[in-house]
Amino acid sequence: MSELTFENSSVFVAGGSSGINLGIARAFAERGARVFLISRDPERVAAAVAGLRESGGEARGCAADVRDPAALDAAYRQATDWFGEIDVLISGAAGNFLASALDMSCNAFKTVVDIDLLGTFNVLRCGHAWLRKPGAAVLNISAPQAFNPTRNQVHACAAKAGVDMITKVLAMEWGDQGIRVNSLVPGPIGDTEGIRRLAPNEQALERMRATVPLRRLGALADVANMAMTLCSPGAGFVTGAVLTVDGGSSLQGGRDLKPE
Ligand code: COA
Ligand code: NAP
């Protein structure tokens, strides 16, 4: 992966203040890109931006909720005033918790769908005006729940299935403008908020690890390396793809995830 360079590239990361998305942002920044991050909490954004700068990256960011198109418009204006048209747009904001359908209110279901599914539409719809045409790469961060029915995950399953459909439909609609749109599907990635919520103790973590054919949890770099590859010119003929980076774990089908 060391040969990839993103000098003079501009990268916008929605949901970029922590975890997998921050790992992706860091990988692009380390390879020369200018990176703009958004998430809801201004302090988390500021800390993430400071961390990227401390390691020599060029980074800025602001607070914006993906459920709020006006806030997204303002963030895109701020980002593009700084770095011009967007070469790479990562949409990865998400919320999740373990609960059965009968243990979640209608509002709880709606909250996750609003962030993951409607938020992804908002990020792409509002971002389109600022994408480089031709040449931009859009990457939605999906999840195995999109295609593996999983107990206690009806909200995430429904939302991420919709995210992958957004990927495929917009790959068709935007292809003639030279914009590629793909989904990246991380499996269980160690030391992330997502995994802390889905496998909240060592026993659950061990069960999860055992379902991975490669017998380990993923690392942030595993996802970031695939994100950079998919957004690089070498993947210039790849669009509408839903690519797993999961050690083979989704080959086993859905899991019985339980709140413990
Ligand atoms: N079980 C059942 N319902 C839950 C729940 C749980 N563990 N956690 C939250 N809810 C419900 C709330 O009770 C509320 O429903 P109500 O109004 O009927 O009471 C609804 O979800 C919305 O909660 P709220 O805290 O107001 O939403 P928010 O927009 O502030 O936060 C969440 C969104 C709930 C997804 C929050 O967990 C979050 O911010 N997550 C981001 C981090 C994350 O999830 N990372 C992993 C990504 S994979
Ligand atoms: P995380 O650290 O909690 O990342 C979620 C990010 O989204 C945070 O930066 C959060 O910051 C931001 N966010 C949440 N709601 C938002 C909103 N309404 N508007 C804007 N930003 C918002 O979790 P993660 O585990 O790294 O997950 C990152 C992505 O990977 C998600 O799309 C998730 O579905 C996917 N994924 C994770 C795993 C895993 O093993 N962890 C597996 C499969 C898929 P704020 O709180 O500041 O808003």
Order of helices and strands: EHEHEHEHEHEHHHE
Mean pLDDT across every amino acid position? 97
| CATH architecture descriptor | 3-Layer(aba) Sandwich
Assign a percent range to the helix content: 40-55%
Q: Give the C-alpha Rg.
A: 17 Å
CATH superfamily: NAD(P)-binding Rossmann-like Domain
Instruction: State the end-to-end CA separation.
Output: 39 Å
Largest sheet, in brief, is:
7 strands, parallel
Tell me, briefly, the overall form.
Answer: globular
Annotation, overall tally of beta strands: 7
- Uncertain regions spanning at least 5 consecutive residues: none
For the largest beta sheet, what order do the strands appear in spatially? Answer: 3-2-1-4-5-6-7
Protein name: SDR family oxidoreductase
Keywords: NADP, Oxidoreductase
Q: Helices and strands in order, then pairings?
A:
Layout (H helix, E strand, L loop, with lengths): L9 E5 L4 H12 L3 E6 L2 H13 L3 E6 L5 H15 L4 E4 L14 H22 L9 E5 L12 H21 L5 E7 L6 H6 L3 H9 L9 H11 L11 E4 L15
Parallel strand pairs: 1-2, 1-4, 2-3, 4-5, 5-6, 6-7
Helix pairs in contact: 1-8, 3-4, 4-5
The structure holds coenzyme A and NADP nicotinamide-adenine-dinucleotide phosphate.
